[in-house]
Amino acid sequence: MRITPISISLTLAFLAACSTAPKAPPVDTTKTTTATTTTTPPPPPPAPAAVDNSQALAAKLRAQVADLNGKSVYFDFDAYVVKSDYDAMLHDQADFLKANATDKLVVQGNTDERGGSEYNLALGQKRAEAVKKALSVLGVSGDRIEATSFGKEKPRATCHDESCWSQNRRVDFAHGLQP
């Protein structure tokens, strides 16, 4: 027997044809198919990092509100002009309100114990309105700020001299966001 190039080619072709990949198992066509409905699975719970992040943001917001609520604008005797000393504080208040569109602010005017109740209620209201106007000038919508007066009813200090009176002539901030 002679081996020729043609016989080698035919042998290789035969071997290649015999070594094909295994075939897939036959499909059972006797089974009937039924219509199925698909339901959307519930969304997965938030990842722990997202929960921790939202809790951290809430804690930061509570701390900011507590800090801003602890601030006051102080006034001279029988005056309701906001001094330029309070510009930075008012900017902080305005920036917070602009960044938190759902927050509402109550500015609470107070006076010292001297003077009658009606006079002190009016003076406290003028002080609160002056702070409200200053915040409005800084870009806070006036409908987000309520100005109210407590007159001499909420003293911060109770002695009967200038050191206490000066602490009671003020406007306090009360943000609607709860700390």
Secondary structure: helix percent: 40-55%
CATH architecture of the domain at 57-168: 2-Layer Sandwich
Structural class: alpha+beta
Number of distinct beta strands: 4
Q: Give the CA-CA distance, first to last residue.
A: 101 Å
Poorly predicted runs of 5 or more residues: none
Query: What is the makeup of the main sheet?
Result: 4 strands, mixed
Residues in β-strands, percent: 5-15%
Strand order of the largest sheet: 1-4-2-3
Total number of helices:
5
The SSE string, one letter per element, is HHEHEHEHE
**CATH homologous superfamily heading of the domain at 57-168:** OmpA-like domain
**What is the alpha-carbon Rg in Å?**
39 Å
Which CATH class of the domain at 57-168? Alpha Beta
- The quaternary state of the protein chains shown equals single chain
According to CATH, what is the topology of the domain at 57-168?
Answer: 60s Ribosomal Protein L30, Chain: A
Q: What sort of overall outline do the alpha carbons produce when their principal axes are compared? A: elongated
Overall mean confidence score, pLDDT: 83
